[in-house]
């Protein structure tokens, strides 16, 4: 459809752009930085071999570790010398911050190298028409419209992926939601801090039919090891907590809807069994929000996907397999969701 409108895909990440748009700067993709004048074959030919990528990752990891050690050393020396030579301490602090900035840049370059040579390929193996952006996420407006039973004040995230899985339109990314907390000390001064109420994957799938009511569910138990400071799920005043005839389902999930009768009509034994199967397939606390023609699924996994981890070293084959395993958690849940003919009957 986008091609029919005269838009062209980036030869590397697949994001569409208007070739007649004067805002395109130097014919570089705004998402991945690829030269838009290259063909997909030319882009593929520019990819690094596993051996080349392994050497570059090993060097990048070594440099990043060295810079982090230097940063810690400069800050420690700054603290030690501060009471005696404050000007020298200030120089050490500036030097430490410089090392920190360089280290962050080196880490980002390593992630981009990994994305260009491994991550996008892994995603494209299972997601059709995939568009992947390392440092983008779902916008706040989209998160709020989903009305997931989590109370949060600010959001951050990375690694957004959109495309089609088994012909169904999906979008998912890493998301961290934080709640604001204000405290007052003995002098009457107030301070504001934030603590996470959710860290994991936010998945949106387009349904084949309009969901007749707003239905929200969240798991009672917390499989994730992360502890929350207080209960984060809050019901709206016009919503009721619903109980089904299935005691096992009631023990596992809280059910919220403004229309109890319709909710119970929708929550058939088959549907409830499917939701519990999706919960079993995840290694984390799970949330569902059915509204309009979308279902939002949240996995409170306490981790990000497609990151370069210390234990990976520079073994490209192991990194690739680990990323496939991470993606398989998402697709297994979607496979179970697509078994519901009522939601996806075409």
Range of helix content: 25-40%
Helix count, DSSP H or I runs of 4 or more residues: 9
Secondary-structure element sequence?
Answer: EEHHHEHEEEEHEHHEHH
- How far the N terminus sits from the C terminus, by CA atoms, comes to 19 Å
Strand segment tally: 9
Instruction: Give start-end ranges of low-pLDDT stretches.
Output: 222-237
Bulk shape: globular
Q: Describe the largest sheet.
A: 7 strands, antiparallel
Secondary-structure-based class equals alpha+beta
Radius of gyration: 24 Å
Strand content: 25-35%
Mean pLDDT: 82
Characterization of this structure:
With 346 residues, this protein is α+β, with helices and mostly antiparallel strands. The protein has helices at 40-45, 50-81, 86-126, 140-146, 247-252, 260-266, 269-281, 316-337, 341-344, and strands at residues 8-9, 16-17, 128-133, 154-165, 168-184, 190-219, 240-242, 253-257, 285-300. The strands form two sheets. Strands 3, 4, 5, 6, 7, 8 and 9 form a seven-stranded antiparallel beta sheet that branches. Helix 2 packs antiparallel against helix 3 (86-126), helix 3 (86-126) crosses helix 8 (316-337) and helix 7 (269-281) runs antiparallel to helix 8 (316-337).
């Amino acid at each position: 459809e986008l091609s029919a409108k005269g838009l062209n895909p980036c030869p590397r990440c697949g994001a569409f752009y208007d070739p007649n748009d004067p805002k395109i700067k130097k014919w570089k993709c705004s998402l991945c930085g690829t030269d838009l004048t290259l063909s997909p074959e030319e882009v593929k030919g520019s990819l690094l071999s596993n051996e080349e990528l392994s050497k570059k990752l090993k060097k990048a990891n070594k440099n990043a570790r060295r810079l982090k050690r230097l940063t810690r050393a400069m800050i420690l020396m700054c603290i030690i010398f501060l009471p005696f030579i404050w000007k020298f301490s200030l120089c050490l602090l500036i030097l430490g911050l410089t090392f920190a900035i360089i280290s962050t840049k080196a880490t980002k370059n390593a992630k981009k190298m990994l994305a260009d040579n491994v991550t996008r390929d892994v995603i494209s193996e299972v997601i059709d028409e995939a568009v992947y952006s390392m440092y983008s996420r779902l916008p706040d407006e989209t998160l709020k419209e989903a009305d997931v039973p989590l109370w949060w004040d600010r959001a951050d995230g990375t690694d957004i992926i959109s495309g089609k899985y088994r012909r169904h339109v999906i979008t998912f990314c890493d998301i961290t939601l934080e709640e604001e907390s204000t405290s007052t000390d003995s002098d009457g001064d107030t301070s504001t801090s934030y603590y996470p109420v959710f860290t994991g994957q936010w998945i949106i799938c387009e349904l084949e039919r309009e969901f007749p009511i707003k239905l929200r569910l969240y798991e009672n138990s917390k499989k994730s090891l992360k502890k929350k400071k207080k209960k984060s799920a809050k019901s709206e005043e016009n919503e009721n907590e619903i109980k089904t005839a299935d005691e096992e389902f009631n023990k596992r999930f809280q059910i919220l809807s403004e229309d109890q009768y319709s909710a119970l009509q929708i929550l058939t034994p088959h549907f409830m069994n499917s939701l519990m199967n999706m919960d079993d397939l995840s290694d984390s606390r799970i949330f569902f929000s059915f509204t309009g023609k979308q279902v939002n699924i949240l996995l409170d996994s306490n981790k990000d996907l497609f990151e370069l981890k210390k234990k990976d070293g520079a073994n490209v084959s192991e990194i690739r397999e680990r990323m496939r395993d991470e993606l398989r958690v998402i697709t297994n849940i979607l496979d179970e969701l697509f078994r519901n003919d009522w939601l996806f009957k075409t």
